[in-house]
Amino acid sequence: MPLNYLFYVAQAYSFDILRPLQTEIRRRRGNAAWFLANPKLQPSMLTSDEVLLNSVDEVKAFCPDAVFVPGNVVPDFFPGVKVQVFHGLEYKKKGHFAIRDFFDLYCTHGPITTNKFNELALQHPHFRVIETGWPKLDPYFALPQPNNPKPVIVYAPTFSPALSSIPLLHEALGQLCESEAYEIVVKFHPKTSQAWQDLVAQYVNTHFKISVEPNLLKLICHADLVISDTSSAVDEALLLGKPVITFNNKAPQDALYNITDASQLAVAVTEALAIVPDKQAVIHDYIQSVHPYQDGLSSARILDATSQVIDLGVKRKPLNLLRKFKIRKKLNYYRLR
Questions:
Q1: Whether the predicted model's global pTM rises above the 0.70 cut
Q2: CATH class of domain segment(s) 4-139+295-331
Q3: In terms of C-beta distances under 8 Å and separation of at least 24 residues, what long-range contacts does 19-24 make, across chains too?
């Protein structure tokens, strides 16, 4: 009998994380549906063949066997095993390991997160931890490496005023394209201020472009090098085997080419594009620690892990009354069942 799976979505970035799971669910003849938990998310964000559930009653009628969540919370009154798949790879952020008592299963990405969640499971024995990899990356491992006529550099800065490299790095980027040795593609975060976008836009020419492609990973796959600061793009690019230059990264690591002054950018670009074996080995070690799965089958592993928990049954979770009430208030649902 085919299983029913629900995607609980509170942010727009969740679609790219969950759609590879939907592909695998369909391959297994299962049923997938979406619940949009944010009024800013419009039904038009779904494709014509995707199923939208508009109310709690519709969710209950659908009766999911599992609910996949790339966020922090999920309604406890939704049927099914609650599965955390995470919204990013930022294991360095404190909130990544926060236990909020909503989930029955944590699908971790690699040893660096699995080990920590296994430790937490000893303190909070109401959930299980199974290492699976991250579904968002599945479609990209099978893509061929780029064969660009000249090196393509993707610049993907964060929007945060405290962390963004745009104010200090934009002139050095403009100077890079003057040599015409590189193709530079800029991908702004949607929340980047218009004033900062204008700083970068002044350099646009045939070798310096601003992309409107919504999927950053597609751009990263086509790139030879990624430049960023402190952004989720950093880890995603590393895991796809790209050298990464960061500017004043908040937690620099050996796998990165981190610079602290814009004058260092040109030399760093030359060094990163001519990556030496020792640096490549450091990046390999990083991948093995954070996300060792390069086979594009993380979604399959997540469904297998979920099936295990469905068969074993869920454990009793803490009452967590305040958080549960907040979700009920948000969805205007106060029934006991």
A1: yes
A2: alpha beta
A3: 20/135, 20/136, 20/138, 20/139, 20/298, 20/299, 21/68, 21/85, 21/135, 21/299, 21/302, 21/303, 22/50, 23/299, 24/299, 24/300, 24/302, 24/303
